[in-house]
Amino acid sequence: QAVWGVAHALHTPLMSVTNAISGMTAIGGLLLMQRSAEAPAAQILAMAAVCASAVNIIGGFVVSQRMLDLFKKPGETDYSPLMLLPGVVFVYICRTSPELLGPVLSVSALLCIAAIGGLAAMSTANSGCKFGMVGVFGALVATFASLPTGVVAMATPLMLVGGGLGLAWGMKVSPIALPQTVAAFHSLVGLAAMFTSIGSYWASPVAGATMENVAAILGDFIGGVTLTGSIIAFGKLNGNLASKPLDLPGKNYLNLGGLALFFFMMHLFFTTGSVSFGVFLLVAVGALACVMGVHLVGSVGGGDMPVCITVLNSYSGWALVAEGFLLNSTVLTIVGSLIGFSGAILTKIMCDAMNRDIFNVLFGGMNNAPVAKGQDEGPKEHTETSVAAVAELIANAREVLVVPGYGMAMARAQTAMGEMANLCRSHKINLKFGVHPVAGRMPGQMNVLLAEAGVPHEWVLEMDEVNPDMENNDVVLVVGANDVVNSAAYEVEGCAIWGMPLIEVWRSKKVIFCKRSMGGGYADLDNPVFYKENTDMLLGDAKKTSEALAAAVRQRLEAV
Question: What pTM was computed for the model?
């Protein structure tokens, strides 16, 4: 219920916070370090898991807080740091009352749940982030308090090194790189879960289909898929890999074959009496999962990456659940379930917003249909306009809507748009922004970028808020967006985006597209709105065009 209530504008901070919380895989690594004193190889895996998790925790919370700080209004007093005070209480209790370590862990889990509830609204989002921080801190302090001194002495430097790397990474990343950063952090959770699962069996091998063995092989598999799937998602979002889907012959059979092989190795793992063969099988399952992660995410096109990121977010939660059962840790099971369901609900929200089949995304684009080439009855000649003409339209308007897309983010044009918004508002022109739920490469990314440009969040509306009043807009300026305003979704049955809910810009009095060329979006589909009578095209680099437009609007308004 808490996740359903989170505003679209806060979906990016929500994913970043839950990703940071999933770094509680560090607790699994710490517990394994205690159990693996007599198994050096398992202890090395545990130490690697602790260090990787620390990067995720600190880096994730730093990125989350930086995002939320962008939404603060100038002069606004922030009392959310007071929410960190329970951390002091946790330290005191863990030092003085060892018998209360269990309740501290339970309260920490509840604080992580409260973090999701806090992120439901702008007014409480900062407090929600702090609840997440103190929840993870409390769980780590209670875990450290339960460990022998020798393990603490080994683990502390690992946490400090990992935390330092996470801090440097989190402070350096720019808002435009948030989607790939979250994907990279997800990969660390997968790595930690895979190492802990293998190391746990290596340190304490037990034959048969026990709860620990079931959790070990499931955590190993989910962790491997999350690890390489997240790396592929990072590569696609960062431009290192092509956004085109990997379309291998018989890809559905490859996925089914990989799954069948996993179940076969699971059977062998449960029936073997050899520890060395059991370890070999876990390593083999991890390798298979890594290959499947590459194929599953590689088969998803760049346009579906917002959904893919939420799926990986969910996977990281289920990997944490597996660790909880593996190491008999209630806090990991509770928090992992929270993250798993949170990611699954966000995936459902994103799939609905894009009219995508959730199973198609989960299983690597298994039903990619050929794009329908429908005929649009409108004329195929577009009308181009100029910066001066658009500035005149805006200056004479009373209601203006700006629809941003990933093109705006790539061109870093949000600053010019923010400047123009403030200018128009100061001259009694009601300029607002309409953001589609999946605009950008991550849910809520446009909201974060607009906040970075100084646009108050009250000026940024959701799709369902702008569509009912679309006819009242004198001018709609579409900046770097295409698929989310492409009327082919309603007009060309069977096309790649058929049935996808849209921001219906063509219903306004005048539509201006500010984009580089007449090319299609990620769906590579012609947009009938380009050729409608009330549409003009302002072609060119979005940053240069936006800056020129902001300057022209300023000159025109100040001349009045």
Answer: 0.83
